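Re-running 12-oxophytodienoate reductase to confirm reproducibility after the cluster update. Everything else is unchanged from the original entry.
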Amino acid sequence: MSAEAPTIPLLTPYKLGNFNLSHRVVLAPLTRQRSYGNVPQPRAILYYSQRTSKGGLLISESNSVSDTAQGYPDTPGIWTKEQVEAWKPIVDAVHDKGGIFFCQLGHYGRVSNTGYQPNGQAPISSTDKLLSPQIRSNGIDVAHFTTPRRLRTDEIPLIVNDYRLAARNAIEAVVVTGCYSYLRYFDTYHHVGFDGLEIHGAHGYLIEQFMKDKVNDRMDNYGGSLENRCRFALEVVEAVANEIGAERVGVKLSPFSDYGEAGDSNPKALGLHMVESLNKYDIAYCHMAEPRMKTVADKVECPDSLLPMRKAFKNTFLVVGGYDREAGNKAIAENCADLVVYGRLFLANPDLPRRFELNAPLNKYNRETFYTSDPIIGYTDYLFLETTT
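Result of re-run:
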């Protein structure tokens, strides 16, 4: 008899709350800039279904929660009926292949300019400090920003409510089959909404602009102490969890990063405070960026670790940032994470879990086409592994 093949940690099953995952390789939320007019396009059906495996978890690109939440060209939203309707066939395609699909909700805050704002108004933020011009993630384009308008204390609940409404939009879509009455016990209905939501609290966007002390210079209940700076983030979590159920909610954090000039003087304390606070809401997962990823493009040697946060958080812990097959397997085997999130490798290898299973060569990604405004190039044209017999 042949020896039994060694177990590949990344390809072992995992139970994420109510969801049974067949492996631990997660599609990262990746900005793709192909949602023309802020509406997801039909080609996204193919893009996401290509990267779907039965029992695999996918996290969508960030969806703006309102018309003030935009900051990049051609990124999707989920605040209008048209946007919700456009997402339905995409979600259906993922479900048809047995995937679990979470929708990321975001707000860019001051990482924006008047060109993306309704009526050309100033972007909103925790602060009125201007963000310096930034080189985009493709390493080529330079983004310029407008001086933001500091939100008044009484306006903050309105932004929290934008997240709540977006959460409802993403989850509640239902198509009824059979007899069209909810009152009949033998009726069936097929849920075509997203399975859950990830609140984007990372990468220098609005929630981080409140959390990080190098940006937040407020003097009210949302500024100063660590508890005050995290108040907005936790109010969003509470509102969304109350709306759709905590078991459907994840949160992405990057306490150690300096995206968009949003750094913090004590990132470990920030990370620990957030995961301990999230425990009170019993949400499905926390998704955290590795300390070595200081910005989108820079991977650095770093003495910091996510292990204290991993140990403090009581539910599923996802890690992201510079992982390959070997590092991902090690993270699972050593209990440093429950799931490992892959961005650029999954972008370029739609069948990444299969390639990891076979330890097959990987396609190389082309950074220059990450954000190409084309429905195919750099989007759905990466090749699958040839079928082997």
